[in-house]
Design brief:
The structure is a homodimer. Chain A is an alpha+beta fold. Chain A has two domains: 4-265, L-amino peptidase D-ALA esterase/amidase, CATH 3.60.70; 273-391, ArgJ beta chain, C-terminal domain (Ubiquitin-like (UB roll)), CATH 3.10.20.340. Helix content of chain A is 32%, strand content 27%. In chain A, helix 5 crosses helix 6 (243-265). Chain A is globular, with a radius of gyration of 22 Å. The two termini of chain A are 37 Å apart. In chain A, 64% of the residues are buried. The interface between A and B is large, with 68 and 68 residues.
């Protein structure tokens, strides 16, 4: 089935198990665009950068990529010169396997930090990998680390009467914040578009999708999101600031927001997806501060795990977020149940609150009544399993 | 025994159970200075402020306090006009009980947000409270919420040959960050000093003590710390920028850092105290950013709980902290065991690391090799009990 990264024309993919992980799960993914794809990327803002990621960031400057290769189980990070050399070898091995130039390879690695990349295993893995148009799912499985399920999203739409596709895959599911080698997403499209316009679209869409999730506590910033286009659709060339561009961006949003929500819902140990909608701020930036504070508050997230309508923790996070607002005009809703009006608690049915909080998706709505700014973020609850997963991740 | 807030001359205290909490624990504390104490305070920077706290902040402007009254079990927060009126009544009831002016009372409340303060219970509690010089411990017990033990610290020292005392108590142990009504500390002294100088000393010392702990995830800011002086020691009047002042500040540091470390060590669900020492930054502010990032990282804290020497998470937090430094000069030590040199992992004995991490106190030392800035912060690990405590705190 053509799903995820192989939903768009011109792309093949595959995933295999080559033994980098301690189990028999897939751990090496490849996405191929034989004719060469225009490529754009956003990369972590962490000062410490993984070696594979650094090479990807360098190679993407060429604007054309033929292969994306991703291993899970090892981050190829914090290994000084050796890590850089290994990234180059990773790209060279891939170029040899797929008959392209190493500069046309975008390598990525995710997993444990500080252990040398097992290139012998990767080399063996590359020899048995065989990308096809049905390989999207195998690739999505191969990039998983603590994810419990593969994440893919697709959308097809008409642009000037021509069929265009966007498909993608992503992996989390911990350390999702300004970070390295932990959140990875690859999106493909066949839209006819320039590299510059692709970059602009990706940056715009990341702001409302991958940059709006928080799992571990910090404001989320993309670790690495790649957007590749085979340009094989017959649509008229998309230029910035046109109606066509806005349609393309909207379609890309659908894919990226869906993937971002999947990441949040499958956050480490998560039992539910929490959407935080903030409005009524003086600026959008203030709304983002409030949404960030709530989505990263362990107290709000443990309360959600306990199905506890503890709006006191929500208003507390609103208060320390750094946003400016009038504390006497704050309204808070859990689902459609209003629990706080004008900064004061309302009597509400605990049974009704429990019913809302027990669901797999919960929406917190906060209106601070001080303006027209707004923002939406996605997170998950904080459970015992989060502690279990992370207390002995490495050992 | 004269301990905590009654260690200094001129102060009496007591704590009683009046039924605000659902159990039979002490939940009402009082500290009395009959002759009237000079008073200084630092208060939460949260936009949302508890009603009792707001009244304290107002009353402290008078510079003289005769009574500090603190209830646990109820935060008297987010109750609009009613909360303000209740704070006034709380002060009036206390003034009636202790024969002073309501403006000389500093009320504080900590506990659940959004529920009206049970003034009838408080009134009954005040009628049976009897402050003595041995009541420090009872008061320290009465301000506890999720704390597992009362927290007191004392220091006596000579100032120009005269005996001076500083003693204090504090409570945590969750929601320790820019917040309200959750961290409370009261420090007393008998040093002969002006209100202005007292304020200066408190502000200076908070920066390296209560403002250097993080339990829940955010940078720590005092919620409410009161410093009261009976001025009953015979020392020469302390003036700012003198040798006497620096001795007083150093002694105050001893008390406040000890209390701050107790708060961190008794953080909700904590099994160990983690001290994070950062050096080698271009500025002290950069060092603080790094220390903050590590102390608030759930990934670093769960690894500590699991006795996992996962320095990759530490260097990751260093990298996203916002500090500027050269990634190739970062050294990391867990206890005295170096695990990372010049940004790259070192081989180390996992057994030795485990021995260090199993202890009740663990020190992480990070030198980024880019300058002379430094900072130290305190936090705890993140355990299953944190989730249990907070998933059903309110219900």
């Amino acid at each position: 089935m053509q799903s995820g990264v192989t939903f768009s024309k011109g792309f093949t993919a595959d995933g295999v198990a080559c033994g980098i992980k301690n189990n028999s799960d897939n751990d090496l993914a490849v996405i191929i665009c034989e004719k060469g794809a225009k490529a754009a990327g956003v990369f972590t803002q962490n000062v410490i950068k993984g070696h594979s990621l650094k090479l990807s960031r360098q190679n993407i400057q060429n604007g054309i990529a033929k292969a994306v290769v991703i291993n899970s189980g090892n981050a190829n990070a914090c290994l000084a010169e050796r890590g850089d050399a290994d990234a180059l070898k990773f790209a060279q091995l891939s170029a040899d396997a797929f008959g392209c130039n190493p500069a046309e390879v975008l390598p990525a690695s995710t997993g444990v930090i500080g252990k040398p990349l097992p290139l012998n295993l990767i080399s063996a893995g590359l020899s048995k990998i065989s990308p096809t148009i049905d390989g999207g799912l195998a690739a999505a499985q191969a990039i998983m680390t603590t994810d419990t399920k593969p994440k893919q999203a697709e959308v097809g739409f008409l642009l000037g009467g021509k069929q265009v596709h966007i498909g993608g895959m992503a992996k989390g599911s911990g350390m999702v914040h300004p970070n390295m080698a932990t959140m990875i997403s690859v999106i493909t499209t066949d839209a006819n578009i320039s590299t510059q316009t692709l970059k602009l679209a990706l940056k715009t869409v990341c702001e409302v999708s991958f940059n709006r999730i928080s799992i571990d506590g910090d404001t989320s910033v993309c670790d690495e999101v790649l957007l590749l286009s085979s340009c094989m659709a017959d649509n008229e060339y998309i230029k910035p600031a046109t109606f066509q561009f806005s349609i393309f961006v909207d379609a890309l949003k659908v894919v990226c927001i869906r993937l971002a929500k999947m990441l949040a819902a499958d956050g480490e140990g998560a039992t539910k997806l929490i959407t935080v909608k903030v409005s009524g701020t003086k600026t959008n930036d203030d709304a983002h501060k409030i949404a960030s504070a709530i989505t990263k508050s362990p107290l709000c997230k443990t309360a959600a795990f306990g199905n506890d309508a503890n709006w006191g923790r929500i208003i507390t996070a609103v208060g320390y977020s750094g946003a400016s607002f009038d504390p006497l005009t704050v309204d808070i809703f859990i689902g459609d149940l209003q629990v706080c009006k004008n900064g004061g608690g309302l009597p509400f049915s605990e049974a009704k609150a429990l019913n809302i909080l027990k669901k797999k998706e919960v929406v917190y709505t906060i209106n601070v009544g001080s303006g027209k700014g707004s923002d939406t973020m996605y997170t998950c609850d904080f459970s015992h399993d989060y502690i279990s997963i992370n207390a002995d991740y490495r050992t």
